[in-house]
Amino acid sequence: MRHALSVLVENRPGVLTRVSGLFARRAFNIKSLAVGETENPAISRMTLVVEGDEAPLEQITKQLNKLVNVLKIVELESELSVQRKLMLIKVAASDANRTNVLQVVDLYRLHVVDMVPDAVIIEATGSDAKIEALLVALAPYGVKEIVQSGTVGLQRGAKSLSERVTQELQLKK
């Protein structure tokens, strides 16, 4: 089962190592990892996507909560959150098939970020399902290379998780 975790941490050196090490010690493979500062430069958000059963994941979540630099952990349920990843895809594009490749780009509302005589590099942003469907559509033309970011996600609605954590930190001072 796929789980996306949003983990707010103190923006300090070594935090990523401690968090990822905890998953490694429990033999959980991290399928996707994205880390970056939030609107508060003292707090970073890690979005981790893992596959596994509920019970071991619950145990890891409890252990994550015990780490000093971890401020808040929320599981991003797919229907209650927005999740996206970014992918750059290099596709063979000869004179014979360039028009067809560009039609796929238009159909999926993507962007061509580089074009040379024998290839195009496409920027794709979307859900896992959209990205998978795109790769199937581009496969006949020859996908030469792929690079992708980790999944990022936010809960739907007006509530801000990082804003609440910032307020809690200020109250502790």
From TrEMBL:
Enzyme class name: transferase
An MF annotation (GO) of this entry: acetolactate synthase activity
EC number: 2.2.1.6
Keyword Transferase: yes
Pathway the protein takes part in: Amino-acid biosynthesis; L-isoleucine biosynthesis; L-isoleucine from 2-oxobutanoate: step 1/4; Amino-acid biosynthesis; L-valine biosynthesis; L-valine from pyruvate: step 1/4
Quaternary structure note: Dimer of large and small chains.
Name by which UniProt lists this protein: Acetolactate synthase small subunit
Lineage: Bacteria, Bacillati, Actinomycetota, Actinomycetes, Actinomycetales
